[in-house]
Amino acid sequence: MGLLVVENLSKSFGGLRAVSGLSFEVEEGEILGLIGPNGAGKTTVFNCLTGFLPSDDGSIVFRERSIKGLKPHEICALGIARTFQIVRPFLNLTVLDNLMIGAMLREKSMTLARKKAEEVLELVGLTKVGNQRAAGLPLPMRKRLELGRALCTGPSLLLLDEVMGGLNPKEVEEIVGLLKEVNGKGVAILLIEHVMKGVMALSHRVVVMNYGQKIAEGSPQEVVRDPNVVQAYLGREFADAGS
Amino acid sequence: MRKTSLLFAIAMAILMVLPAFLDKYLLGIFFMIFFYAYLGQAWNVLTGYTGHISLGHSLYVGMGAYVSTFLAMKYGLSPWIGMWAGGIIAAITGLVIGFLGFRFGLRGVYFVILTIAFAEITRLVVCHVPALGGFAGIFLDFKPSFWNLQFRSNESYYYVGLGFMVASALVVRALEKSRIGKFMIAVREDETAAEALGVNAFKYSMIAIALSAFMSALAGTLYANYIFYISPNTVMGMGLSIELILRPIVGGMGTVLGPIVGSFLLTPLSEISRAYFARGGLEGLHLILYGVLAILVVLFMREGILVYLERFWRRFVRE
Amino acid sequence: MNYALILQLTVQGILLGGIYGLIAVGLSLIFGVMGVVNFAHGPMIVLGMYITYGIFVLAGLDPYVSCVIASGALFLLGYLIQASIVNRILDFPEAMQVLPLVATGLIIENSVLMAFGPDPRSPRTALALASFNVGPISVDVSRFIAFLLALVMTGAIFIFLKKSDVGKRIRAAADSRVGAALVGIRVNKVNNFSFGLGAATTGAAGALLLPLMATSPHLGHDFTLTAFVVVILGGLGNLPGALAGGLILGVAESLATLFVPATMKQVVSFALLVGIMLVRPQGLFGGRR
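YS: structure for the whole thing
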């Protein structure tokens, strides 16, 4: 059984079906890309998975136990960490303090938490700004901080919401390298992303959503050639043109 | 770093020795400085550190004052013990308010209004309870003794006040460095992000409000046994709720020294105002000044005067 | 069941509720456009009362006439407050927006205290004690006039917002600050005007209330809280809701005196406030939250 098993997930806002009958699995140690046009419902899926939104229907099972209805902090304690599409650093705290908050989940001692935070600080390449206030960081560094903070909680599954958004190609490459390293340590990653280069380079498998539903699943190469996917992103003409 | 510790040691030494040079009037002013600094620390725990703004903190002060006074007058219980009863009752009240606010998602302005509503409801209810003196309030008997927390000389009040202020500063300082304190700060900075990192925002907000309420109640007991008169309007009213927040705001919310600096800055102003407008009831001038200062600070020095003092100090230390 | 008494209380509640509605419309407007809760609303009403009182004492003008002057004066004050203070705090976290307005209220309250002293003031106007009868119900003339004027003014505000150019700009800015700026609306000026308008309602309300009650400097807090109850009842930012909420609260408070002493009736309104916030924070009629 997979690390995370989502079955028939549904969420509506009033009359709007944001997510409808979505099912997928994330295997231990794999990187699963979750892509789809804007408004496809991807962030809503994240919010349901991490307890920020109650799902209307379906089951969410992590390590063979249901996490539906749990609070976000409980889910994090179980091993699922997430980042936000619009980064949310603790602005008035230093970078290191930001990381420590994450580390303090598992490390009860402040000294050990600090040590862990320093390790992650180096891993995400922010050692130079460790003592700077987060408010002073430019966006690419804030993204690394967000990622680092989530890593500090020692997750087995990392949910990344457009972590490459707003980065230039070189920065994207650096993040890809970083994520490969993280994945190498055994952390599974579920990745919402619009930057296709990143998705293709990282994902073992990809799930494509449109209008709240899964429209394709498979390896990155398969998915990109799927006419349904092309149609979703580019419209019918392109899909017909390709076939 | 060592220079800062030296500064504190010198300041403490001065404060310990000062009473020998002060007359009764000045000692009284210092007592009020210490009192408001302490109260500011208490409020800070909930607002400055955890980020939930309360404009109804006089509720807890009033509870402390009324509970300890009632126990003292009815059962002869020493206020040193009575203050604990007041503190616990206040803490429970805080937990109730916190539960309603945090569980039901009342944030920001709604939470502020919730705190005001509870304070006002309680104040109005107390006004109608004859056993607690109703509108007119209660005059305390003057029976000076250490156990009654009442003293003949202002010098004793000075030291008790100083003790409270220093104790609260130490408590908040320890909190700041502790796990609990850091999680509170995370909740203040970004509750959603904190939750996503495994921080139980509800739990830490509840701890904050209970602690803040408890500490505030102790101040109420102290106040009652200094002024010897308590009434719903003076110890549970909006006036006190607003006054007690001004010092931490001006001095610096979310810092240990903020309420202290703020109190040393603002409290003497009220005395000067009182001196020039001796006729009762016209002491509004200092409040106007407080208001202006608070606006200026929030607009231009959001983190309070303390940050500017620190920068100045750092430049001084470097030379 | 003393139906006559209940009817009497209901009517009195409605009459007072009209004024509550006027006050709440001002507060709701300020929130709707700027997203800021005016914690100085109550002290502004008190200021309106004192201005009206001052004019009455100095020039003998009846409060219902000097209502216009009081509104105008508060409009200017509101404009100033927005321009100098509130415009700067629009992007602050909600919590930090509360403090400058509380401080402003503090300044207003104590300025009035220093100018007039702490004793309650009450003008002896010609209509103060007059009343007329409608069937079994006795109606105070001053309450009745206040009610009518409050309704007229509230109606005028609604029409103004709907039909006039400035009104349309205000509604645009309330809808979307960025959008309004993009179409060339000087949002800062619109904000100033809106706050001024909201403040004007406090001036008017003060003038209308003066014949009904004595004024004293510290009434501000009570008014602010009452305004909150009404606004939250009706829905923050919902203007017709504010008027409806005012009427509802007026009646609720009035009927409450059947069960509790008059000095406790505010406990009823605050309990109502807490209840609404917990159960239906968007208000009975839905506001913007």
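YS: worth flagging: The domain at 3-117+136-279 of chain C is CATH 1.10.3470 (ABC transporter involved in vitamin B12 uptake, BtuC).
IM: good catch. Also Chain C touches chain B through 43 residues (CB under 8 Å).
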